[in-house]
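stage 2 :: seqdesign
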């Protein structure tokens, strides 16, 4: 099997394995993958999002999201309020319960990221991020999906900051 044939399944399998490991760590908090991903996107947005914006960021259809949001609201993870600009539109924001555990979610994700990347050189990681960014941008251009671009840009900024911090820490050691 060539690298071209292996790359797609390897990328998908790696992302899936990473999410499943994080799922294991967040399950004691009562968070499934669907729940923590939704909360993560709301947290990264820093402000309320519309249901359409959340669906785009998660890469799912709005009807599927409606059921999830209903469950999250009933469990106190999120709150919904009418938009000031358009009363027909509901804005979704983190509820008290989520605000209390967002730092724990972030800490669990950071710990896992550190464990999975600890033996990978900074140069290899930079190359990997550069290549994946190129592939991601091409994939978005081809299908015209701008929904992921918002998440990618915030994720890319976060990755750049983490890499800088990691590089500084490595130079100190």
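stage 2 :: out
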């Amino acid at each position: 099997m060539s690298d071209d044939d292996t790359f797609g399944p390897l990328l998908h399998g790696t992302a899936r394995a990473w999410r499943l490991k994080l799922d294991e760590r967040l399950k004691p908090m009562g968070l499934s993958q669907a729940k923590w991903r939704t909360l993560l996107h709301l947290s990264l947005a820093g402000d309320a999002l519309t249901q359409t914006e959340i669906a785009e960021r998660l890469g799912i259809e709005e009807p599927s999201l409606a059921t999830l949001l209903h469950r999250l609201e009933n469990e106190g993870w999120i709150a919904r309020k009418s938009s000031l600009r358009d009363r027909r539109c509901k804005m979704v924001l983190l509820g008290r319960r989520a605000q209390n555990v967002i730092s724990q979610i972030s800490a669990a994700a950071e710990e896992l990221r550190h464990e999975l990347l600890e033996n990978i050189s900074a140069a290899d990681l930079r190359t990997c991020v550069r290549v994946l960014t190129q592939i991601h941008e091409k994939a978005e251009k081809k299908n015209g999906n701008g929904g992921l671009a918002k998440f990618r840009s915030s994720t890319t900024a976060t990755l750049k900051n983490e890499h800088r911090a990691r590089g500084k820490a490595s130079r100190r050691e």
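stage 3 :: structure notes
- Residues 147-173 have pLDDT under 50 and may be disordered.
- The longest strand covers residues 78-82.
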